[in-house]
Structures are given as structure tokens and as C-alpha cells.
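Now for a chain:

_____
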Amino acid sequence: MSLASVISSAHLRHPSSFTARWRTITLVLCALALTACTPSASRGAAQSPIEVTEAYIPQPPNGAAVAGGYLTIVNSAGEADSLIGAASPRAGRVELHEMRMDGAMMMMRRVDAIAVPARGETRLAPGGYHLMIFDMQTSFVVGDRVPVTFTFARAGAVQVEMEVRPLGAGHGGGPERGN
């Protein structure tokens, strides 16, 4: 006897129990399929390969509408990434900038991206790459924690709170210095 004839004869003898069994089997199979497609709770949420450390903003002078921002970006991934943007609810806009010598003159310019090497780090520090924070909504005071969302080409958004430090206190609270 074929499977099709067994199913047909079972359906004809007990139509309601047959339908209920197939509905149950279908629901169980759908639940198993959905479970296989979703991440397991035991695996936890996926961790970003990008970590932002030592993020700080030197306290700008009273009344200033612009501030700088410095940080270290650590990439644990096997592929390079790029910082391609930043934003904060406490500022009108945040831009990526670079200081560079042009002959005997130090020049600052906006950049579209800052490379972060695979299994490496990039430091945004005075005299090199840094953030420019424009149109601050309120004054930044020492001790404030300013929320900033960094956008990376591969890793996506990484949210960080940047600490406002006294002018002259650099990475790790020590004096500021260039790369």
C-alpha cells in the first residue's frame, strides 16, 4: 500500500482527527524551522568586532560652539573596517577631520573615512585624526558623558559615551599629545 493511499484512507475514515494531526505536525515543523533560523540564546548577542576606547572631549571654552573629540578604535576582526561617520544628539553635526602638515603649515581638513586595520587599532588624537563636534546643543562641562554613535563601513553603528575632561587631559587622563 502506498503512502498516498494510507493518507487518503485515514482522511476518509477520520477526517477531523486526520486534519488535527496534520495541523499539529505542520505547527511543530514550522516551530522547528523558526528555531533553526534564529540565534540561540546560549550563543548570546553578536558582539561587534569594533571597540571604541579612551573616548573623550576636552572641555571647550565657555560659549564655544565647536569641540574636538579623541578616541582609540580597536578592530578584532580579520578584515579592515573604516569609520565613516559619527553623530550625537547633543550636537548639530559631528565630522571626521585630519590635521596634516602642508610644508611648514599645519592644515585641518574634513575626511570621508578613517581606516581601521584588521586586528589593529587607529587612534584619533590631537595633531592627527580627530572628531569635530559642531553646534553643541548645550555647553560641555567636565564630567559630562556625551552620547555619540559611530558608523563603520562593515561593523555598522557603535554607541559610545564620550567623557568631557579638563582641557589638557588626554587619553587615559594624561596630557594630550599628537600621534
In short: The helical segments are 3-13, 15-37. The first strand starts at residue 50 and ends at 58. Residues 3-37 form one domain.
